[in-house]
Design goal:
By secondary structure, the protein is an alpha+beta fold. The chain is about 50% helix and about 15% strand. A hairpin with a 2-residue loop joins strand 1 (about 5-10) and strand 2. The N and C termini lie far apart (about 45 Å).
Length: about 90
C-alpha cells in the first residue's frame, strides 16, 4: 500500500532539506505562499525560523492548520472557498 505521505525537497536559507507531507498539506502550503505573494521556499523558511520544537514537517502541518482555522474563525477562507464552504470578501 502506498503511503499518503510524500517526501519533497526544498531549499530554505540556501540549504536543501526534505519534508514529508501529504498532498493536501503541500497544495495548501503552495496556495498560502501564492496568496501572500511569497515563494514557497521563503514561506517554509519563515515557518522553520519560528518553530520552537518538533520537526519541520510537523511545523508546516500546524502552520497550515492554524492558517485555515484563523480564516474560518474570521469568516474568510483564502483560496479555498469551495472546500471550506465559506465565502471571502473581495481583495482590495
Amino acid at each position: 500500500m502506498k503511503s499518503p505521505v510524500v517526501k519533497r525537497s526544498i531549499v530554505i536559507a540556501g540549504h536543501k532539506t526534505s519534508v514529508s507531507l501529504e498532498d493536501a498539506f503541500w497544495e495548501a502550503l503552495k496556495e498560502i505562499a501564492s496568496n501572500r505573494r511569497m515563494t514557497l521556499s521563503d514561506l517554509v523558511a519563515t515557518i522553520d525560523s519560528g518553530r520552537t520544537q518538533g520537526n519541520l514537517s510537523s511545523a508546516i502541518r500546524l502552520f497550515v492548520l492554524d492558517h485555515y482555522r484563523g480564516a474560518a474563525a474570521s469568516g474568510r477562507a483564502v483560496g479555498t472557498n469551495e472546500r471550506m464552504g465559506v465565502s471571502s470578501p473581495p481583495v482590495a
